[in-house]
Amino acid sequence: MAPQTPRPRRRLAVLAALPLLLAGLPLAAGAEPEPDDVASPVSAAATTGEATEIVEVTVADQDAIAGLIEAGADVTEYTRPADGGLVVHVVATPAEQAVLRDLGYAVGEVVVSAAETEAVVAERDAAVRRVNQTFARMAETLTPLRAEWFESVGGQTYLGVEVKTSLGADSNVTLTVGFGGQTVTMDRFVDAGQYIYHTLFEPVAVDDVPAEVTVTSSGGASVTVPVVEWLGDPRPDPGPHYATGFVDHYMDPTELYDRIEALAAEFPELAEIVELPYQTNGYRRKAQAMIGAGATAFYVTSHDWGHEGGNDLRLETVNPGTANSPLSVGVTGGTVRVSLGTDAAGVPNSTAAQVVAAVNAAPAASALVTAATYRTTGGTGIAVAGAQDLSDGLDAPAGISREPFSVRAIRIGKVRDGSRTGVFAYSQEHAREWVTPLVALETAERLLRNYANDADTKKLVDDLDIFIVPSVNPDGAHYSFYDFNGQRKNLTNHCPATSGDPASANSWGVDLNRNFSVGSRFDGYSGASASCTSGNFSGPAELSEPEARNEVWLTEQYPNIRFAMNVHSYGGYFMWPPGAYVQNGRVPLPRPTLGEENYFWAASSHILSAVQDWRGTAVWPGRTGPVSDVLYSAAGNSADEHWYNRGIFGWDFEVGADLWDPVEREWDPQGFQPPFAEGYEQAMEFSNGLVGLLEVARAYGRDNRPPRTTLELTDAGVTFEATEPVTIHYTLDGSRPTYESPRVESSGLREGAAPIPLGAGSTRVHWFSVDAAGNVENRYDPLRPSSSYRKQTVRVG
């Protein structure tokens, strides 16, 4: 079973946090890729004003997703299996969809249309593998990882199962789950070319919960596994005065920051504003205009920001109507006028490239604009006559500032001097995720407005130091609200002239959750792009973006921060490090110790039970775990940054879990911007989850009780039982155990502890355990001479 299932359910008091600072991170060597000078094939088709859709794209396997990203596709966090491969959701215009088809990708149905932001039903056919081959000469082992039942919104009951087979490398091996007279074929999860385990990618709806299930392999092996409950930790009901529901519409960043400023002013004894040091680019762009198409096209970009004069300029190309006229450029007021050269017949003969050179050489014109040919055409076509006003393409109302934005955190706590356990909650690294800032704001409102009347809220505010950033990416979010709702990245344009034209405007920016310094693209990790127009562009360098540097600054400025939650959407995932791996060999960042991994699981159970309390939504067990185990590799993400560099227990919410359609009996994805009625429910339930994280953090801060372990000798070797998640160090040679001694390790991905094998005869086992809060069993000090470690002699044979 998975690490948490063999243990009885614990009360929150047994949770604790990081036992040791992690050793320095060994990162994979590799050359530092530079941003591409040429737009990727998909993003090259971008045209400003063409509406995007969320569409299904079928690929062969997990490797193909990386190829899709490299092609420039804007791949969402949502993925699911289909016959013969995987279905991913891609944000694309019709033109970009056509390019994907030309590249050989199977573009399927629209999930969210251009006219609607609510997700449409995306039907999935379960992959069925029926194989008659037998493996009589092969010994097979089935390792059960988990078998769990749970209820979700609407009261329907579901079953999830995960099992590993030792024959998993053979794609012909089929596993089936049997229960109550029903048989279901399991899905084979393969990532980066490696078999991981068999699972039910979509939980199976059941009317009656089976006490056990039997998994049978086409290789001949079978195993029977008891079914346990997933989630459902007992939680106290909030008091009658506990208020919720403080958000009533989707809010742009200007509204969000006005609200937290007002909250801090209203509750000065409990809250203050922390201004982060790195201002963003701002909701601003240079103004542009383009005349012509393809090889005949050229465009100009203003030196001034659009709102500071660039939008007042105009570009004109004219046919002088006379023979043998020279190419010339002049400026009248704010109009840059190009008189095209003509031949002896009076026909224009100036190429777009010649026009560009002339504009850039003319002092009056080059003082206002810079000209460039269109993408990779070279401007070899004959320029055409035309006129266009320059525009920055930004349509937000005047009340939205165009200046660099100062990102702020609202800091909540009765004692804000660094002596309390710190928690960092942050939202909207990705601009189009409109629900996520509501989760953050709702949580801040609940903490402050319930403090006076709710004893549990008072405990959290009194005992914690809470930092909430409602929108990490305000520029991109303003753009998403007022210009292009599909915007994922920030608003900083790193593109060269070959991809900096007006038609690429919706593709500019950096994916902030690929811009961090751990497990990055620059270190050779998978899941980010070097193309400046890709949806997963990692930026020109690690931490190149002020938004990313702000997060790092906050966690360094306040080292008491021990917990973090990065709120994303959509898909209903709940994840933690490691979040990235090197594609070749699927080599991940160092995994947490077994004790730390078990702590992630135990804390997650509490947090997700809090989510479920609102309306019954259960995050699936198969969508819970390390990012690289349940989703894909995300090079340079922020949770890895905070965990590996500062030892912060960091999670990722993906709000917007699939909802079960009882009529069609299938799961419906929700999209980035569901109708607000659904967005409200998501904000409420995941605000519950943030409060659950605060409860975990408070228990950590108050934990000073050493753990306790017991040694057991089994046929496979020595195992240990513990009162809570612990890391165990041991020796077998009679020496004193230290932090450098071997530790109990996991048997494998999503598995429990591996027994310690012993030779025949007597062995003296010395060990100690340390919990997540750093409490050492028997109060033993591994750093100084001491004999209070645990000791036991065991005999084999």
Automatic annotation (TrEMBL):
Superkingdom, taxonomy of origin: Bacteria
Cofactor(s) this protein cannot do without: Zn(2+)
One GO term (biological process): proteolysis
Keyword terms of this UniProt record: Hydrolase, Metalloprotease, Protease, Signal, Zinc
Signal peptide: 1-31
Molecular function GO labels: metallocarboxypeptidase activity; zinc ion binding
Protein name as it appears in the record: Chitobiase/beta-hexosaminidase C-terminal domain-containing protein
